[in-house]
Amino acid sequence: MLDSFHAAIKAADPAQIVSRFLPDLADISGHVFVVGAGKASAAMALAVEKNWPEDKALNGIVITRYGCGLSTHRLEIFEAGHPVPDEKSVYTTQRILEQVKQLTENDLLLCLFSGGGSSLLSLPSDGISLADLQTMTRQLLQCGAKIQEINTVRKHLSRILGGQLAAASHAPVLTLMISDVTGDDPTHIASGPCTPDPTYFSDALEILKRYQLNAPQNIRNKLIAGVQGQVRETPKPGSSIFKHVKNYVIASAHLSLTAAKKYLQDNLFNVLVLGDTVTGEAREVAKVYAALIKEIRHYPDLLKPPAALLSGGETTVTVKGQGRGGRNTEFLLALLIELNGLSDVYALACDTDGIDGSEENAGAIITPSSLSRAQKKGLQADEFLTNNDAYSFFEQLGDLVVTGPTYTNVNDYRVILIV
Question: Is the pTM of this model over 0.70?
């Protein structure tokens, strides 16, 4: 399971991918300015540096998550807050916007975006404080909203997301993206700083109502003003702003699942890929997977063991308890409860960026003995699930998967082995 996870990560390694998408410098009479944001942005920046001619000028500013920085010589890399933005996010983003506004039509803006870029590239719109944005972000992350919904709100509280970075540039724009969102729609990768935004202030306001969020008054006022036409909308599809913008998704969950599938097939597993767009509440998705596993165990003709089920995507967790953990450990804990000690079934669920939620683990594993080992330790799995405390459960079992930063991010990876 761990080796298949590493095969998935390798397939999304910026060092192996970025060089194929770099611009032809013969077409650029001015200079190239690089902007990056996301958990993979430092690795993408390093890949640009290593493949850039020594005699060609290169400079830029890249923001990544604390602990995900790398050493570069020509590009500045800063670390900032994720998933909640902080002062460094705002300061560095302000510097980026100021530099981009100075570019001319003879220059090139080269953007490197990946998952996590939405919070790292933070510049609140007028009248909204960083504290307001932090409060709103925490509420959105805990209410069970989809990432597309979260990003819809973020775009309308920002001066740089939702196509506004491209709008600030007089230079042509080339954007390379590593996708961590289901469907790989560029408008939702890092909240689409250089892509058209098909959403509106009214959509953002509706999301607050849908999840009954107690947003700061300044944020409510901003969204209402936008609905009333008192605040300019984000650039929309068809806008002339994007005439000289090119966006490329260079890595995705689908490509990583394909690599993992090949690895498992080479090791004689019969593999079924359940898709790279799995969404929904983590514990509810686990119930569906448990039902499928039981069906295969009872009727092996459906998928003859040794079998592997693979999937990607991004589940959600509605936080009601006081515990620790991310969506991958919550999925596994719910799956463990549903399987109830079923023999010959193993599972791993990890985030490809090496960080499940806000903890230091990528995810965890379960084995046929996990439930009995937990019971011997006096751990009641259902109590930990109720408290959203999957991290503590797997920590006490010694079954966390800790990889450290992977310097890429193509969302979650799940593998279930039926042997």
Answer: yes
